[in-house]
Amino acid sequence: MTPFPRDSGVQITAASTTLLRAVVVFVCLLGLPTDAVSQDLDTSLIQAAARGDLAAVQMMLAEGADAAATDSSGASAFMWGAYAGSVPVARALMDAGADPFRKGVIWLDESRRSYYGSPLAAAAGEGWLPSVRFLIEEIGLSVNDREWSPTDGEATGWTALQWAVSSDQIDIVRYLAARGADLEVRNRNGEPLLVAYADPGRLPVLKVLLEAGADVNATDPAGNSVLLYAMIADATEFVELLLSYGADPNRVRSDGATPLLFGIVNYATASVLQMLDRDIDLHRAGEYGTTPLHWAAMAGVPEVIDKMIVRGADLNVRDSTGATPLGHAAQASRYRAAETLLSRGADPSARESNGWAPLHYAAQNGHSRLIRALIDAGAEIDARSNNGLRPLDIAIDSLVIPPVEVLVCAGASLDMPDAQGRTPVERARHREREDLARDARLGGWTEQERQEAEEYYVSMSTMLADPYCGVRLRTGMVANNDRFMSVGGVIVARQVMETILSQERLRLGEVQEGYAYLLAHFLWVHVEGGDRNEGLRLGERALELHRQLYQPDAPEMARVFAPLAALHLRDDQEVSQHYVQQGLRLTETSAEEWLPPRLLRTSARLLLD
Q: CATH homologous superfamily of domain 1-182?
């Protein structure tokens, strides 16, 4: 049974009572059973109690309704009276013999997933403080009385306090706490109240619990505290409230994670900076030996990194793999984080247990700007890993040209052999043959197709090169039978635009020109594939994004859109003219610097000054 609407319009009047009395007399004169009539009286009594209609309840009782009547779910008329918040109805029923301690179930939804399981639970959940006081102070119900659970078949459900907190009944929460309610009561998931309702929107009711003495450091079975959830939400007022009541900022879960760590990885920057003003242990190593500075470097938030260093965090602390914070920043392609660490004196050549240094990761990710920064800071350019790989070897294997150019121009040895005795040039040739042989084997390519593939690798590695933010060739293209095709380009292009527009990346300054290269690739795919309207739409979006993110006269503009004009439009003068009308102009010098002269086509020259 679902709750009876309090304004259902069902009225037990004197006329209807007279009619019921007449029916009873008539049935008795005929000598017929009166069970059906009694059931009607009991149902009417329950309905009247659910409306809080004292007059109707009194009339039903006077006509012989059973004060102990229950509905099909076991909820008594007394329990329905508590649900309605009517103390007079409850008294009248109790005076007539109703059992105030009887429990049943009042279902709160059609799916029967939520319910009240006792009179006290119903009164507290509905916000009837007078009824709650009556049940506890006059009837004598325990303040920690648990409701009936239809699942368990016994009284293992919620207490009145749990219902009051869940429905933000602040006055009832305050009253129950003053009467000795268990402030640490847990739900079926083992969560105490503060953790179960750790929501910045519930600050008033949570503050009442804290004022009453709830344990601010209580945790759920996983070790999560209310402070941890406040950090995830980046709710500075909430965090400050908890800290003022003694929340432990250094409390550790079983896996070594702390509230500070969760704030870092969830980009709760304001709360993290707020927390760093407290007595935080910045040297505590969690799972795999990672410290807060390692995590801040991976998240890439310079202001957090800088404040940690000022607070005394070890710049070159190592995790269980030997990685430093700078190593983690390089792995995650976090340029600004790496820049901050280097400016503070981080070791650019620190090796991990596998022999990799930050420069290896920058080369693997194709992050030319980070490669330059590490080399300028003194990174060992020809450092070998345990398996003999140098950053140059890794850049060659990634098939992305600019990182190779940066390393070679910075002095990486072209004579030093790899672990197989091959020079960088020999390694590049071997890698090229290896890829082409695989393509021929799996795709059954002809010699002409292999030659086209070779040209394609050259142009695409040039095009997808990202001098500012790592984009790897194989993750940036869509393969079909190991042949790079146009399948799914629109979907991926949209995903790329979503990445570009990410507010967090914009705030961190990690969105760089390199993303336009990737977007331009997919634009070309669709112009080439015949979906010109979609291609033009994506191109206009790319231009809009570029103007939003960068100054129109920035020199990088030519670099970003020279591939768009020269490679991706494939000598399509009509489309190139469209971009001329959109205001995209390039300089011949900048275009020729970035692209091999043989790739400058007629369409590109339409865009040249």
A: Ankyrin repeat-containing domain (1.25.40.20)
